[in-house]
Amino acid sequence: MEGCGVEYAPLVVATSLNVGVVAGVSVPCGVLCVAVAVYAACCYGRRSNSAAPKDAGVPFAMVFTDIQSSTSLWARAPEQTGEALEQHHDVLRLLIGRYDGYEVKTIGDSFMVAFKRASDAAAFGLAIQTALYGAAWPDEIDDVYVSLAQEAYEELLVNEDPKKAAASAASGERKTPQWEDEVNYPLNWNGIRVRVGLHWGVGSVKFDAVSQGYDYYGTLVNTAARVEGVGNGGQVLATRDLYARLEEEGFDLGGVEVTALGPQPLRGLDEPVPLYQLCPAALRGREFAALRLIDWPRWCGRGGVSMRCQWWRYDDKWDKDRCCVFCRRITCWRTTWSACIGGFADAAKKNRFKCVCDKCRCAVIAMQFCLLCVCFLIIGEETLR
């Protein structure tokens, strides 16, 4: 066809062969797209188990984390704590993926994470501290931590032995609290404080058909949880087993300050567990309170009676109810008294414990005196008859 000097090709009518080719290509592609869409819909929301340790016979690392003084944060700055908690979860989940960890579960603000390699677990724990420190947090979070530190310090001064306090002041041994140091405090502390406990070993591995995920049990899990429980916010604690594994894996400790803390008693474990403190070099100026330990079990007995003397602490407060129950039940209170008091190096804790137990001891003595009087009355009546 010609027109205006332009030639047009004639319109070619599709043949049955062309239609068959198009149908043969489009139908399989459509089926494939539908299959991919169905698979994506089925997998949406399902957790990935690729990073989970699955062999109970192969050692792996277990990590527990927890926010320091979360109860006080919620009580004193509820709105800011809610926002901070969401940010905390986002940061930790980002790091879990970065270091090939497996998020087993979360309970409140506590994370339980498993790793196939000890190096990844240690890197995760250290990264938590640097990432949280570098994040932006509401000022109210730090204000709560500072106020809690002030209250604890004032209580310590009130309960401190006057002679010891005078000697410390005269010798200049008493250091300025870190939260009063306007220069160094911002260089080491900022926002949410998380304690981290790490352990390496063999544990029981179970697949949960309901959650479609793996869970872990045994001494490995219990030890990691106890290690985390004795730490302070901003502190990373590792057992000797995990630290030894780091050396075997060739983990670079060049940017890490390692402090050997020695064997420490952990609740529920028969033997003390040697612990190491791992601190990023950038945060080496952090000062931590003493580990939140229980008193190591002491034994006493009389006339074949043997009882275990254990004292529990939660958030640096003594569980006085358990203490009183123990004191009421014990038959050899004098031996227990000297044994337990001898185990306290801190004068403030000793005085607090002594005050509670003195009341219980007086009650026991009064009951014994009343029983003795009743016995004499009964004997006297029988004699007169």
From TrEMBL:
Q: Does the keyword Amino-acid biosynthesis apply?
A: no
Task: Identify which top EC class this enzyme belongs to.
Answer: lyase
This enzyme catalyses: ATP = 3',5'-cyclic AMP + diphosphate
Q: Which SUPFAM superfamilies match?
A: Nucleotide cyclase (SSF55073)
Taken from the UniProt entry, a GO cellular component term is: membrane
Stretches that traverse the bilayer: 20-44, 360-379
Q: What does this protein do?
A: Could act as a receptor for an unknown ligand.
Protein name per Swiss-Prot or TrEMBL = adenylate cyclase
**Originating species:** Bodo saltans (Flagellated protozoan)
